[in-house]
């Protein structure tokens, strides 16, 4: 077992273990990937302020996200096809999150169903919804999430039209993979992944399979899903979904102060400042660059979360100090999952937790509560 001290270690093992098609699906952004890259590199423009001779006993990373206690404010972001990175991937990730005391968000595009994840966990998780053209489908998903006891709905607003990722088209991304000669050659070197997949019953689209019935050929994920998203989603529909859901609502994919005000009007409990991990509008600014404007526009009135490019506890610390109450990791936990299943997700969380705790201490802070820009030295791009 290699020594794992940072998220990058998990990524290296992940790359060796998982079929190229699914590695590329995770490790890419849309078009030129500018926004995908900026999400990470913009964190480098923010530096931490070292402080000394401060009593560091009794530190805590505990906090709350939408009123739920968390051992650190780092949730697992919704990631489609998690169950293709590792057999039963959503269950592995949800269990790791539950044990660590952080929220897990199940994607609409999951392989394991809502009910499957609920059956393998004991605490409520969050459910992420994509709004589809078929209103019955949306209603059914809301009902299933309610029945499974999900404690929040994460409604994603930045993917009504699918961004284009070159690698997915070139790889012929599909789930399960179509066995072309190049896919078979790749799979031959990744037999551990294949054995796991053969063992599980969950190789289908758990959440959307009912909806997909009648679509005779669901080979091409991109083509099929692109037809399902509702391009007419507007704030009125968001309002209606909020009413139907009736519980905690988190609006995901807000990257602009005006949209943040709309989200506030609708009555969201929280917003996630996000550009979908650089997978949608290539050329948009990074989430961390947009965060300060959004915090100053609505930060007093709604809870603000952020995702995109978080690969370390230092990144989490910077996001919290910039005004976020909570953060999410997408790829960082997928690397762990693909590398080592549940243990890998736990390892990713441990690495980030340790980095957050130590960095906080070296900045002279004992708690994530009350972190502010005073712990930062910020490049002028952020002013
Ligand atoms: C995503 N993301 C995403 N978001 C969502 O609302 N529903 C989804 O099904 C997916 N699917 C998905 C698949 C993959 C492979 C990735 C990498 C991302 C976006 C995700 O929730 C989150 O916004 C980003 O992953 C955050 O960026 P980092 O942490 O991956 O840099």
Explained architecture:
The chain is α/β, with parallel strands linked by helices and 383 residues long. The protein has a single domain (7-382), classed as TIM Barrel, CATH 3.20.20.70. Helix content is 44%, strand content 12%. It is built from 17 helices and 12 strands. It has helices at residues 7-17, 20-26, 34-41, 82-85, 89-100, 114-119, 135-147, 166-171, 181-188, 191-199, 209-212, 221-228, 235-245, 257-266, 287-298, 313-321, 331-362, and strands spanning 46-48, 63-65, 68-70, 74-76, 105-106, 126-129, 152-156, 248-254, 270-273, 303-307, 326-329, 376-378. Strands 4-11-10-9-8-7-6-5 form an 8-stranded parallel β-sheet. A two-stranded antiparallel ribbon has the order 1-12. The chain has a two-stranded antiparallel ribbon with strand order 2-3. α15 links the parallel β9 (270-273) and β10 (303-307). α14 packs across α15 and α16 packs across α17. The longest helix is centred in the last third of the chain and has 32 residues, at 331-362. The model has no long low-confidence stretch (mean pLDDT 93).
């Amino acid at each position: 077992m290699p020594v794992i001290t940072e998220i990058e270690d998990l990524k290296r093992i992940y790359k060796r273990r998982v079929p190229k098609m699914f590695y590329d699906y995770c490790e890419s952004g849309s078009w030129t990937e500018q926004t995908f890259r900026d999400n990470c590199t913009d964190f480098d423009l923010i530096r931490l302020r070292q402080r000394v001779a401060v009593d560091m006993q009794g530190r805590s990373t505990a906090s709350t996200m939408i009123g739920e206690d968390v051992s650190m404010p780092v949730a697992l972001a919704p990631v489609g096809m998690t169950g293709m990175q590792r057999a039963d991937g959503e269950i592995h990730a949800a269990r790791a999150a539950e044990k660590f005391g952080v929220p897990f968000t199940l994607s609409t595009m999951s392989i394991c169903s809502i009910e499957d994840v609920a059956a393998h966990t004991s605490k409520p998780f969050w459910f992420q919804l994509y709004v589809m053209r078929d209103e019955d489908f949306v209603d059914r998903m809301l009902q299933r999430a309610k029945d499974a006891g999900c404690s929040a709905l994460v409604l994603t607003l930045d993917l009504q039209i699918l961004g284009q990722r070159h690698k997915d088209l070139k790889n012929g991304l599909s789930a399960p993979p179509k066995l072309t000669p190049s896919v078979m050659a790749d799979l031959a070197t990744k037999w551990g992944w294949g054995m796991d997949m053969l063992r599980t019953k969950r190789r289908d689209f758990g959440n959307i399979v009912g909806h997909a019935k009648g679509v005779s050929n669901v080979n091409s994920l991109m083509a099929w899903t692109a037809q399902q998203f509702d391009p007419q989603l507007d704030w009125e529909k968001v309002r209606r979904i909020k009413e139907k859901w009736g519980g905690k609502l988190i609006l995901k994919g807000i990257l602009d102060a005006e949209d943040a005000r709309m989200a506030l009007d609708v009555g969201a409990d929280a917003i996630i400042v996000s550009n979908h991990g650089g997978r949608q509008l290539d050329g948009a600014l990074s989430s961390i660059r947009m965060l300060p404007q959004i915090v100053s526009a609505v930060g007093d009135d709604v809870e603000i979360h952020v995702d995109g490019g978080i690969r370390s506890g230092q990144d989490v610390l910077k996001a919290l100090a910039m005004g976020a109450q909570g953060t999410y990791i997408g790829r960082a936990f997928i690397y762990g999952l693909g590398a080592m299943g549940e243990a890998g997700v736990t390892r990713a969380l441990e690495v980030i937790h340790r980095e957050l705790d130590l960095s906080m201490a070296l900045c002279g802070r004992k708690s994530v509560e009350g972190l502010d820009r005073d712990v930062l030295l910020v490049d002028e791009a952020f002013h």
